[in-house]
Amino acid sequence: MKRSNRLILLIGVFLAIVAFVGVLLLSQGGGGGSTPDPSAPKTELPTVIATADIPLGTVIRADQVTTKVLDLGARSAGSFQDVSQVIGKVARQPVLTDSQITAETLSGGSGQLVDIRCPAGLVCMSVQVDQVTGVGTLIKTGDYVDMIVGFTGDKFPVITLNAIDDSFTVISGINNTSVKALLQGMQVMGALLPPPPAQDPNAPPAEGGETATSLNGQQEIVILAVDTQQAEIIKFAQLDGSISLVLRSPDDFVDPDTGEPITPAPNDTSGIIIKLLVDSYGVLPPELVETILPQQQPVP
Fold it and tell me: What is the pLDDT along the chain (300 residues), one digit of tens a residue?
């Protein structure tokens, strides 16, 4: 083989090697065309999705949620990125399967109600409570409450009847106050609070991102889902009694085995009057003290 032909062959082999290396670098992204830019804005994010229907007022379980990667345009405002952010929290709105879990799901809204959806067969009725009679005005949408009603003695007067002219006289000094757990297991469909005061922009946020509560005599409107008979009872208690709402655990209304909503058996209570406090709880009634005055000497 001639020297010139050998040189041409070597040059051809060298060029082939260079071409092979170039193709290999391009296929591995060596040109930088397919390498993601870490500074580029994200177009997708993981999003917490319900894998089952989550009823209002129930605690969100791990088997009810998962995450899916969604385009930013498909994500709802306030969506969460990790299931740990929602597991163990109470659903303040009912959630359907495949729906996104948002901050509003856990808060029930911004404190303003634009719609109330009563359960079928029930009516919605509002009662007004304060920080003493309404658990610090911390009752929220989805909670379950019992209603305690107290009637003062003037509603149960003790009288003596005159058989001659049918007149009567009210006997004073007798305690006729009566207290009873009147209605149990009512679900809250909505709660209304006055707008929060203006916040100092330099003040640190409250723990957990929620508005702090202070002792200020605040009022709250609580909207309850009840049947029509219960609505009549509540109205009577509003007119002639004193109402307090007590908060129930959401676990009382969920089957621990299936996770399905249940209606627990009502607690059988005795009601309270002063006699029951004396007879059953050892409250001591006052004793009558007799005073004997010395014999008075006649005035001369």
Answer: 555 666 676 677 677 777 777 766 666 654 455 555 566 677 889 999 999 999 898 899 999 999 999 998 899 988 999 999 999 999 988 999 999 999 989 887 655 677 788 999 999 999 999 999 999 999 999 999 999 999 987 766 666 777 677 676 666 667 788 999 999 999 999 999 887 666 666 666 555 445 566 788 889 999 999 999 999 999 999 999 999 999 999 999 988 888 788 889 989 999 998 889 999 999 888 787 777 777 766 666
- Spatial contact of 191 and 221, defined as CB atoms under 8 Å apart: yes
d(CA 179, CA 237): 11
Q: Is 220 exposed, middle or buried (0-12, 13-18, 19+ CB in 10 A)?
A: buried
Global confidence as pTM: 0.71
How far is Cα 190 from Cα 225, in angstroms, rounded to an integer?
9
Task: With beta carbons less than 8 A apart as the criterion, state whether 51 and 63 touch.
Answer: yes
What tokens appear for 268 in the block?
């059988």
